[in-house]
Amino acid sequence: MAGLFAEPGQARQRWTVRQGRELLLLEHRLFQAAFSRQGAQLLHFQPRGQRPWLWCAGHWPQGAAIRGGVPICWPWFGRHPSESGWPSHGWARLSEEWQLLACDWGEQGVQLLWQLELCDWTLHLEAELGETLALRLVTRHQDSEPCQLSHALHAYWRISDVSRVALLGLDGASGHDLLTRADCRQEGELRIEDGCHRIFRHTGVLQLQDLPWQRRLAIDTRGGANSVVWHPGSRPLTEVGWNESLGFLCVEAASCGPDSLCLAPGEEGVLTLRASLAR
Ligand SMILES: O=P(O)(O)OC[C@H]1O[C@@H](O)[C@H](O)[C@@H](O)[C@@H]1O
């Protein structure tokens, strides 16, 4: 996101266009942040005096999802359960139809409300940015029948080097390892050797410890059913260089797989993700 905030005297909130995407830039006394309208995706968040908390790829392919920040996976996570041609992780992160309904400034931060209406569905993303970061995704539908939903806030956390960080708070948690296709149980801290894709049936306040950067982020995945940890390891990612991919680890809040939701008419599906600097 280098250069986005470089112009002196700019407004504290403004729209700009980068790589064909409409971006909302926020310049608050406590932080800088950027959202793309596509996907209502928080791409950048940096409290003053700190390193950025979120990683984002330098190149954003046209007509595809932006890899980085906090993509919203919705209304399904991963592959669609029955439609093999439908896009991975759903439509929300591809849509440019998101509307910004509110952006309220205060001394302690900014509260934003984004909305996407799609067929019978209404999706809201509530964001509270200040010294900490909080995202809340709320799904409603108007169908007369129950609807299936899986979703994730697929955050790409920026780190010094994926081989040098540890994720704490999952000791004893069980889940499913999608790389080995076997159930798994975490013992002690989680370190990434060559890739990771585990869906834990556990949520909590996880600590992403980054010793080279002397930083520990507390990532709160409570509010969903799962914590997901993903890194591609040596598997190449389209248009992301090898060195670039060492700089993130995805730690996500989700409800997916066997923990997907079945929303009765009028029922809301809610997912939250919060982060703060651990003291
Ligand atoms: O590559 P995408 O569609 O942005 O999703 C990110 C990753 O999400 C994970 O859940 C998938 O298992 C990976 O295969 C995928 O690469």
From TrEMBL:
Superkingdom is Bacteria
Q: Using the UniProt record, name the top-level EC class of this enzyme in a single word.
A: isomerase
Tell me which stretches of the chain form a coiled coil: none
Q: Which UniProt keywords apply?
A: Isomerase
What does the record give as the reaction this protein catalyses?
alpha-D-glucose 6-phosphate = beta-D-glucose 6-phosphate
Q: Which InterPro entries match?
A: Aldose_1/G6P_1-epimerase, G6P_1-epimerase, Gal_mutarotase_sf_dom, GH-type_carb-bd
Give the enzyme's EC designation. Answer: 5.1.3.15
Q: Which family does it belong to?
A: Belongs to the glucose-6-phosphate 1-epimerase family.
Q: What is this protein called?
A: Putative glucose-6-phosphate 1-epimerase
Q: What is the scientific name of the source organism?
A: Ectopseudomonas hydrolytica
